[in-house]
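Support request from a user on the community tier.

User writes: "When I paste my structure tokens into the form, the page sometimes reloads and wipes my input. The last time it worked, I copied everything first. Here is what I submitted, just in case something in the input itself triggers the reload:"
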């Protein structure tokens, strides 16, 4: 993993070097900058290197081919690079390093941009072809690695992080109103939007072509295709899945530095540990984060620590625990700065701390179980989608009675079963308008009535033609005709996974120069899962059923069948207690009026309803303060 930056239409090496320096945390081991364009088309590329494979100077970037006509600056890992290298050697290509980076240069020479479909990995890169005077920007299939860009009148700039693009001051800091609306509703804004109207994020599975006259065209090289084979049986599929997971883990263990593990003690991370330990002679270092009991009781989720200890003991890891003493007021501004976007998921805090601890233990690479829920149907809303279909068959009169009873439950702070109370309220409030509307209701954290009152009149004018669900509706429309389970997974894989989960993971890990790998969304796993019958993913009310069957022989039974606990933080306790001074400061009427986005009256009503327990707006409040912190860092001159 690394940080990349560059410009087309200008080759100001000082500016490009400054762009790269601002994201030096992504690659503290080496750096490079080069002017690679032609007289007609100046191009500059920069790189900050995190050395993982071939630690020698031969891996320095930007990297070129033998005659200097093809250049690349690249962030990521290509897990099948050795196979591609052998094929290219057979075709007559010669290599000067043992890096996966050099594969990109020679694969482009051999196959043109079609080569990206052959890559199994996580990547974002810029490739310059001097002969064609063409620049290509490319991002991996599912969007594990980010790439932002700005299309100017005569120049184009790009980088791994938004903050790099702001170097030089030629990019407007005007907000994209629809992106702000989407963030308020979902906690993130989907690609290609960012909160800055002049900055876009390259969509997963695409490459952007910039021709010598400045014309741009976006090409999609990968789309998830669900093609279930109903003939697949349970035992056969579980055994084959275990084999595919073993192969994917082996591929992603390739490294010239030690590999560690995010270990929650849940099914996903524990399964990876069971598989990965077979491919190393070194003792694994595993990392878990926990919270004080008084902080986590309001979330209604089981504690990870006990299960993580059990798994660590079972597999003999060098285990490290982090107990979060809530210094959230000190941490949050740092995390928001590194996130580049005010992603309102407190899991970013836990990821930031784990990666900080890992780097202190000399670990540059961590395996993560992220993506398993999106691939194998593991989230509460997946079960909610199934139950909603059953619930719709109940007579309307009975549904109305149930809704009346459930809505009397506290939205949060329930003394018994707080998580169940919260989910029941959300469920009955979103199941009456059909599958698509139910899914949008399950996934959002503020309804239309709240959002309509939240913005100032002036900002609302800018939103008249915007609709916060546009990307989600687009995905649901594209999946029409598919099984409803695959429609839910397709939606998550195209929105929630890249725009929230993978984004915060990349930013919080690279803040400490740590690379996170995600075997559950390896190319081969995604393709195999797309052919599974949906009934094997959600069996009855059991989520991730086929994954549990595949991992049962490897793990303690208590771990396989433990109640799911999300990777997060005690946000409701923080909002009610630790964050109160920050909330009072950042969401004061004076600040809100000065910013001109959110209505002081609307925000105060959200705070009142949350404090009373009548509504659960903890995540919305978390977004509001994150947004203000983001504005301070990215919009104000002193940020």
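"...and here is what came back when it finally went through:"
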């Amino acid at each position: 993993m690394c940080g990349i930056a560059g410009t087309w239409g200008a080759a100001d090496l000082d500016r490009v070097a400054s762009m790269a320096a601002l994201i030096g945390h992504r690659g503290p081991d080496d750096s490079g900058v080069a002017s690679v364009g032609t007289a007609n088309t100046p191009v500059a590329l920069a790189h900050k290197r995190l050395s993982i494979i071939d630690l020698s100077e031969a891996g320095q970037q930007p990297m070129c081919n033998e005659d200097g006509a093809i250049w690349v600056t690249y962030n990521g890992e290509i897990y099948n690079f050795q196979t591609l290298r052998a094929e290219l050697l057979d075709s007559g290509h010669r290599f000067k390093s043992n890096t996966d980076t050099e594969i990109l240069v020679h694969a482009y020479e051999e196959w043109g941009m079609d080569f990206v479909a052959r890559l199994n990995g996580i990547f974002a890169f810029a490739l310059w072809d001097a002969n064609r005077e063409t620049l290509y920007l490319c991002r991996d299939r599912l969007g594990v690695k980010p790439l932002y860009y700005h299309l100017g009148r005569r120049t184009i700039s790009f980088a791994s992080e938004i903050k790099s693009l702001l170097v030089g001051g030629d990019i407007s800091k005007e907000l994209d109103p629809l992106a702000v609306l989407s963030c308020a509703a979902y906690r993130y804004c989907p690609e290609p939007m960012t909160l800055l109207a002049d900055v876009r994020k390259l969509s997963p599975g695409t490459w952007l072509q910039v021709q010598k006259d400045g014309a741009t065209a976006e090409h999609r090289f990968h789309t998830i295709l669900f093609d279930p084979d109903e003939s697949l049986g349970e035992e056969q599929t579980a055994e084959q899945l275990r084999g595919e997971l073993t192969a994917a883990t082996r591929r992603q263990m390739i490294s010239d530095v030690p590999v560690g593990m995010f270990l929650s003690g849940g099914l996903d991370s524990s399964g990876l540990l069971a598989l990965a330990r077979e491919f190393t002679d070194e003792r694994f270092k595993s990392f878990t984060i926990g919270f004080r009991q008084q902080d986590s009781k309001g979330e209604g989720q089981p504690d990870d620590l006990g299960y993580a200890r059990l798994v660590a003991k079972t597999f003999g890891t060098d285990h490290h625990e982090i107990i979060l003493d809530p210094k959230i007021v000190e941490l949050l501004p740092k995390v928001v700065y590194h996130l580049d976007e005010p992603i309102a998921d407190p899991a970013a805090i836990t990821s930031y701390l784990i990666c900080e601890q890992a780097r202190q233990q000399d670990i540059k690479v961590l395996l993560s179980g992220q993506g398993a829920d999106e691939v194998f149907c593991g989230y509460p809303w997946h079960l909610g989608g199934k139950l909603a279909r059953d619930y719709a068959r109940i007579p309307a009169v009975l549904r109305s009675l149930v809704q009346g009873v459930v809505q009397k439950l506290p939205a949060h702070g329930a003394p018994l079963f707080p998580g169940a109370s919260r989910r029941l309220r959300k469920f009955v409030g979103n199941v009456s308008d059909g599958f698509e509307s139910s899914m949008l209701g399950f996934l959002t954290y503020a309804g239309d009535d709240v959002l309509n009152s939240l913005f100032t009149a002036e900002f609302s004018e800018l939103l008249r033609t915007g609709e916060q669900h546009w990307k989600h509706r687009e995905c649901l429309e594209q999946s029409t005709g598919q099984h409803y389970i695959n429609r839910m997974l397709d939606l998550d894989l195209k929105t929630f996974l890249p725009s929230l989960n993978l984004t915060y993971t990349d930013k919080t890990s690279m803040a400490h120069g740590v690379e996170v790998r995600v075997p559950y969304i390896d190319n081969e796993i995604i393709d195999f899962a797309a052919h599974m019958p949906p009934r094997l993913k959600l069996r009855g009310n059991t989520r991730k059923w086929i994954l549990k069957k595949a991992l049962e022989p490897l793990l303690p039974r208590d771990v396989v069948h433990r109640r799911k606990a999300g990777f997060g933080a005690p946000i409701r306790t923080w909002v009610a207690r630790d964050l109160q001074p920050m909330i009072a400061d950042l969401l004061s009427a004076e600040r809100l009026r000065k910013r001109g986005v959110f209505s002081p009256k609307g925000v105060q009503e959200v705070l009142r309803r949350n404090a009373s327990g009548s509504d659960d707006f903890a995540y919305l409040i978390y977004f509001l303060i994150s947004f203000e912190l983001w504005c301070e860092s990215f919009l104000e001159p002193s940020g």
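Agent notes: The reload is a front-end session timeout and is unrelated to the input. The radius of gyration is 24 Å. The longest strand covers residues 70-78. Escalated to web team.
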